[in-house]
């Protein structure tokens, strides 16, 4: 934040992310260890790889980068969350249905609030994965439990009116006076702290039998930061170092395998959810200290954004890995996945670009061919002949299966899902209507970056021909 004058949206966003990190470090000390180890790994990778380590973002951006995760219960609460994040220049991007992505019961649909403009992402790429409970889905909630749950959710207030008023002003004016900015940040951070209010133990356990995620959302009268995620340049090395420090990690790294080719999409892992002391209220009104296992520490490594064709290839490869792993040969899944990637994905960024599988921006080569030849019309030939070079576009979003895998690895039980019932339909259009603002398509955003650079290059090349 500036010392004097108004505070812009990106400054609010950066300050909010930093203060959340400080708060979460106080609440979950193991998170501070995760941040420290991430920084150590990043510094080591930078020393070892030099400029190549910053190919998907400067070390300053990577070190400061965070994504948070929160959970809410109703469309009304999701609309309020959208207002808070709009104050920070963050928009809903992507629709994720975690009900279909996990073997265990995860009755939520999600979106991610983040900046969408390239300059804003470079300033501070803070994003928040936001999940909403689906009480209307009969696979998880019968009519009686749904009614009780919806009544409980309707009776709580997650965000004070003053915060929402300041948020609307910041979104409209794209800044706040310093005093108002400080008040907004105080109220916003406090809204995501873990509440000390006693939890109704019987109600919480009722929901926990359905899903630990449902209990975390609908079993308490507040929301809280579920995890906060730093970005690391070598997630395999981080996993090893965290384990060496005696911190229990989940069983696997979610997402693409480690291999010698281009890093694509997103790899994630976490330390296991911790048993945290919480005040629990018994049916007779007495309050005792118990423990709930809800929050965990996630870390991520980001790669290149894939086009629709690239994502289709990725999904096909996941299915192939599943098929081979199901054969029961005893070969580790990570080894199976690595071999599948080696056979079916391009081994270089240039090939990934030429085959139209990844998003890149394209830039003129200063010492382009000077032999009088005309530039070719084909993008692949432009790259091969040295007329332009491709810069990878960072994947800024999430993967439903990976998110569900993280959730599932940190659940206290499998929960209950009645597959015989037909699930309630939710999609991006439904969520857009529910929160009264468009849920943006990530592919469109990435294509816009690519196409803008191509338009500039077409102009450049036409001048040289």
TrEMBL record:
Origin superkingdom: Bacteria
Record-listed E.C. numbers: 1.13.11.93
Top EC class for this record: oxidoreductase
Required cofactor names: Fe(2+)
Coiled-coil stretches: none
CDD domains xref list: VOC_YdcJ_like
Keywords assigned by UniProt, alphabetized: Dioxygenase, Iron, Oxidoreductase
Regions that span the bilayer: none
Signal peptide interval: none
Pfam families: HGLS (PF07063)
Annotated family: Belongs to the 2-oxoadipate dioxygenase/decarboxylase family.
PANTHER family: 2-OXOADIPATE DIOXYGENASE_DECARBOXYLASE, PTHR39479
Protein name per Swiss-Prot or TrEMBL: 2-oxoadipate dioxygenase/decarboxylase
Annotated source species: Streptomyces olivaceiscleroticus
């Amino acid at each position: 934040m500036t010392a004097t004058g108004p505070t812009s949206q990106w400054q609010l966003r950066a300050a909010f992310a930093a203060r959340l990190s400080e708060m979460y470090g106080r609440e979950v000390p193991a998170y501070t260890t995760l941040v420290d180890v991430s920084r150590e790994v990043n510094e080591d990778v930078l020393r070892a790889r030099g400029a190549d380590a910053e190919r998907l973002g400067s070390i300053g951006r990577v070190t400061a980068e965070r994504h948070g995760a929160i959970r809410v219960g109703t469309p009304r609460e999701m609309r309020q969350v959208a207002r808070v994040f709009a104050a920070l220049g963050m928009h809903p991007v992507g629709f994720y249905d975690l009900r279909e992505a996990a073997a265990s019961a995860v009755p939520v649909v999600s979106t991610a609030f983040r900046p969408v403009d390239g300059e804003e992402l470079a300033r501070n790429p803070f994003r928040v994965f936001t999940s909403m409970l689906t009480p209307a889905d009969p696979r998880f909630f019968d009519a009686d439990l749904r009614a009780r749950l919806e009544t409980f959710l309707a009776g709580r207030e997650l965000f004070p009116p003053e915060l929402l008023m300041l948020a609307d002003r910041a979104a409209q004016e794209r800044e706040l006076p310093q005093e108002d900015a400080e008040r907004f940040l105080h109220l916003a951070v406090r809204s995501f702290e873990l509440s000390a209010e006693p939890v109704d133990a019987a109600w919480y356990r009722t929901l926990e039998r359905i899903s630990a995620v449902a209990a975390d959302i609908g079993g308490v009268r507040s929301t809280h930061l579920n995890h906060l995620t730093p970005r690391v340049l070598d997630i395999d090395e981080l996993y090893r170092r965290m384990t060496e420090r005696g911190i229990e990690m989940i069983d696997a790294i979610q997402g693409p395998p480690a291999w010698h080719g281009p890093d694509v999409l997103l790899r994630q892992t976490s330390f296991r959810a911790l048993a945290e002391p919480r005040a629990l209220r018994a049916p007779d009104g007495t309050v005792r200290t118990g423990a709930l296992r809800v929050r965990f520490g996630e870390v991520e490594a980001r790669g290149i954004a894939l086009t629709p064709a690239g994502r289709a290839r990725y999904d096909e490869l996941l299915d192939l890995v599943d098929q081979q792993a199901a054969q029961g040969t005893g070969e580790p899944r990570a080894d199976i996945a690595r071999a599948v990637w080696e056979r079916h994905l391009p081994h270089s960024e240039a090939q990934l670009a030429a085959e139209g599988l990844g998003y890149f921006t394209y830039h003129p080569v200063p010492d382009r061919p000077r032999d009088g030849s005309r530039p070719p019309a084909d993008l692949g030939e432009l790259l091969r002949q040295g007329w332009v070079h491709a810069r990878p576009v960072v994947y800024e979003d999430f993967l439903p299966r990976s998110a569900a895998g993280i959730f599932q690895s940190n659940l206290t039980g499998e929960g209950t899902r009645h597959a015989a019932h037909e699930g309630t339909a939710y999609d991006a259009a439904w969520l857009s209507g529910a929160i009264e603002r468009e849920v943006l398509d990530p592919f469109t955003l990435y294509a816009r970056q690519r196409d803008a650079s191509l338009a500039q290059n077409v102009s450049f090349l036409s001048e040289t021909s």
